[in-house]
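ingest -> fold -> write
write: protein_1
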Amino acid sequence: MSRLNSEPKDVRICFLGESFVNGIGDPEYLGWTGRICAKTSQKGYHITHYNLGVRGETSRYLKQRWLKEASYRLPKEFNGRIVFSFGVNDTEPMGSKQGIELKESIENTRSILSEAKQFYPVLMVGPPPCGDVNQEQRNQKLANFSGQFALVCHELDIPYLDIFSTLVKSSVWLAEAKANDGAHPRAAGYAEFAAIVQNWDGWLNWFTSSK
């Protein structure tokens, strides 16, 4: 069950995931999470934004830490919500080093989301593509992961955003990621990511139904 206080425009949001949640590569240190919160605050919402992205983290370790970190920041008397976004590190190289296969990623995702929805409103944003042209095989794997995550979210009735399918066609995202480190974009790439999320029904519904 979600837990909302008497002032719905005061919102605390934990963003949990990996380096793309953290905003690695953005010289403005906003990433996509900071940008969507800044945009939404212009509509009169008072958002406490907790960026809990950990660089290099896989779903295996996110599963171990998310509840402790979120519950500390989202006590029951506040209007707390969670956005998850992970999956890139479950593919190579980090996932390979840990022996993570798609089956475990799906199991971890189902476990994380099943537990989270018992306490908070939850959204999930899928993994984005890599920009390195030599990462075609990895992008194919990410597309598969994204599709499987979408099925889990549908099963659990949790809104899911397939960001991969849009960003893999984005010249801005791909060019910046390629020019940077092959995976993470710069400011313009994160701004494009943010624009997709902030116009997504899953996100918008959080800030219309509570008015």
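write: protein_2
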Amino acid sequence: MKVAIVKERRAFERRVAASPDTIKRMVGMGLEVVAETGAGEGAQFTDAAFATAGASIAADPATALGDADIVLKVQRPVIGEEAERDELKYLKRGTVLIGLLQPLRHPAEIRAYAGAGIVAFAIELLPRITRAQAMDALSSQANLAGYKAALEAADEFGRAFPMMMTAAGTIKAARVLVMGAGVAGLQAIATARRLGAIVSATDVRAAAKEQVESLGASFITVDEEAAQSAETAEGYAREMGEDFQRRQREKIREVLKRTDVVICTALIPGHKAPVLLTEGMLGELAPGSVVVDLAVEAGGNVEGSRLGDIVSTPQGVKIIGHANMPSRIAVDASQLYARNLFNFLTLLVDADGKLKIDTADEIIKATLLTENGAVVNPAVAAPAVANVQAAAVS
């Protein structure tokens, strides 16, 4: 079978869906790998490195995708009028497409895959089970996003993070607040702590308290009793009522008065990101403070954040709205993502190098979007709204 890797064409994307390591492993499975020229350049993987690993290099996407049995992607394909070259038109019926396809945010595109006869898998719909951990691209990318968010904040902050005692005087440690203690939030906490900051964090889930404190940060609790019921048995958070949100904002306002840096990580799959910091709340921060909005692509956790830009409020607070934070550390992000996809691919390819789609496997069933010209995933056909993922990039 032919596996195709193409250059990602969406804005702000530097990652690639394969690495020399995973190409070598795919070839070892008996697969033919074709990579579009320049596919890995954003992640510092050269065509020569791909070729040495066993891939053949195609001059353009049409050549790479033509007759492909499996296509590995980071971002969803560019289709329709979004580009001069519609990637979907190059795929034959029956092609398997695997990537971060954002099915809940772009249902019309999923229907387009079905219409084109594509067998599509959304890697972000993996069930939270032990067997799927090595395939969990959301976690691998969120981990790097949290790390990079702390570094970006430190870079824009006009002061040092750690306390420094010098002959000329003492520099106070920066105070960092992380909102959302999922994968990205926990890594942001750990990184800010390593940089020497005093860190606190908040999350609606009571279970997050132990994780936050294990990293040496303090946990801000709004209502412990309410937090006990904020998490489902599957580890997801429930949407909290308006009264809880009001009290949360009041509590955060007090914390902001003594905070230098805020990192916001709250996402709800398939929905607009919740607003954690209003314009009025930003006014509690001192001039020179920095806010990082990791949810800017989903509408933003911070009022006034702007996708792909750094803006300043009238009070002198910087709001960082970098798009696609994992892509800003593309080498490691690509290495991890490529390994996630390879591990998933092993479920679809048997010992003879033949395609097998076993819908009795809970991982396959959960991630399969389209098959035989139809949308088959109930989560996409009728998105559930009762339970949403925990307020964190995870």
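write: annotation protein_2
The chain has a mean pLDDT of 90.
Residues 300 and 338 are 28 Å apart (CA to CA).
pipeline exit 0
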